[in-house]
Amino acid sequence: MIVDATERQTLFAARQTLFAARLNAFLVGIGMAWVGASTLVAQDSRPLARKQMPRVQTFDALFEPDYSYPYLKHASRVPFKHQVQKFDCTNAWWLAEISMLAYANGDGFVERQLRTAGMQGAKRYTSPENSAHHTQAILTFNADAVIVAFRGTEPQEWKDFKTDAKVQQVELISGGKVHAGFQSALLEVWGQVQPELERLSAEGRSVWLTGHSLGAALAVLAAHQYKKPATVYTFGAPRVGNAGFVKRYQQPTFRIVNNTDFVTEIPPPLAYQHVGELVYFDSRHALCRNVSTAHLVQDKARGQGEAVARRLREWSNLNLDKRPLKPLLDHAPICYAVHCWNSLVALREQSEAGPDRR
After folding, report:
1. For every residue of 47-71, which 3-state class applies, written as one string?
2. Burial class, 322, CB count within 10 angstroms (exposed 0-12 / middle 13-18 / buried 19+)
3. What are the residues whose beta carbons fall under 8 Å from the beta carbon of 267, sequence distance 6 or more?
4. Domain 55-353: which CATH number of 3.30.2350.10, 1.10.3540.10, 3.40.50.1820, 3.30.450.40
5. Closest Cα to residue 132, out of 180, 84, 82?
6. Residue 6: how many CB atoms within 10 A of its CB?
7. Distance CA 101, CA 270 (A)
8. pLDDT at residue 3 in the model
9. Which residue, of 44, 50, 127, 214, is most buried by count of CB atoms within 10 Å of its CB?
10. Helices (H), 46-179
């Protein structure tokens, strides 16, 4: 084919134009990447901010699964400390968020949230459809840790309330007695969870068990059943067993309680006792450890008294909202997640301020 001079010039000009366009696109891409990286660095360098409780504090807003909540946001900046066995605010925040995520339905949503936070996988376990219980748990893991979170009581699920109501005690083979409903509910899924937990922990991962409310009780019973070393964080946990069970329970456990949370006071202490170290959020939302019984009673009374006075002032102004009473509000899983995060931020601020400014 013969190409004359005019066609060669046209072809050459077209190639120049195409080359210039590709070069420009390449340079723009490099520039955008640089800007994006700079923005990311700038964001990562910003101080972590405290969180606020939801403005709308209705029962549904506090206790129904929240699919708009940014679960484990900033996980890349605050990674899980798999090697820390003592109480740690970072791990408390992670496990509070995952315990709240356990209430969500749909493996796709849960797995997306966990993978975004850097976890490598997630599995969900549920009771059989014809079961008397409605037990659910999620298992997630990364290269260093495997976490099992049991879901708590769902407000619209009557089977959960039947589980909670079976307060008679059953004897364990290992000794001691525990809440019959909790033990029966755990056994509905433990046969599914245990083999996967054994497989993942055999590869060198540390084991963490957690849950909120009913899920907290199941986490304690699962840890006792597991027998191998595991660290347990519970949020708003009810009492699980009698003194004999507490004596035989060996797993390191941190029992996190938010001020007047009423679930932490049931079943009655005559036949039931708590396990683990108390970590207490007081009426000012400050994290406290080694709290005396006298201070605990006094602070709970102060928190409840201030809430009653505030509600009376609101009612006198005809502000009749649907906010739950404080002992129920303090039980909301979002409260535990927010308070754990804010305690983490406060510790970071103290560390960055240095000893001279504390």
Report:
1. CCCCCCCCCCCCHHHHHCCCCCCCC
2. exposed
3. 167, 179, 238, 239
4. 3.40.50.1820
5. 180
6. 8
7. 33
8. 46
9. 214
10. 59-63, 89-101, 107-116, 158-165
pTM reported for the whole predicted model: 0.85
Whether the per-residue pLDDT at 91 is higher than 50: the answer is yes
Q: Any idea which residue has 């899980």 for tokens?
A: 80
Q: Which two tokens stand for residue 140?
A: 């997630």
pLDDT tens by residue, 294-320: 999 999 999 999 988 887 877 666 555
Where are the chain's structural domains? 1-46, 55-353
Q: End-to-end CA distance of the chain, in Å?
A: 84
As a whole number of angstroms, the distance between CA 198 and CA 190 comes to: 12
The DSSP letter of residue 319 is -
Contact yes or no for 190/207 (Cβ under 8 A): no
Q: Catalogue the E-assigned strands of 230-330.
A: 231-235, 253-258, 277-281, 287-289
Q: 190-218 burial string, b = 16+ CB within 10 Å, else e? A: bebbeeebeebbeeebbbbbbbbbbbbbb
Average pLDDT, the chain: 86
Token pair 């995952």 is found at: 98
Asked whether 120 and 141 are in contact (CB, 8 A), the reply is yes
Residue bearing the bigger pLDDT, 167 or 259: 259
Kindly state the tokens that stand for 290: 């080694």
Strands 145-150 and 136-141: what pairing?
A: antiparallel
pLDDT at 156 over 70: no
* Sheet order of strands, 231-235 included: 121-126, 136-141, 145-150, 206-212, 231-235, 253-258, 277-281, 287-289
Report the C-alpha gap between 270 and 203 in whole angstroms.
Answer: 42
Looking only at the bridges linking them, the beta strands covering 121-126 and 136-141 are: antiparallel
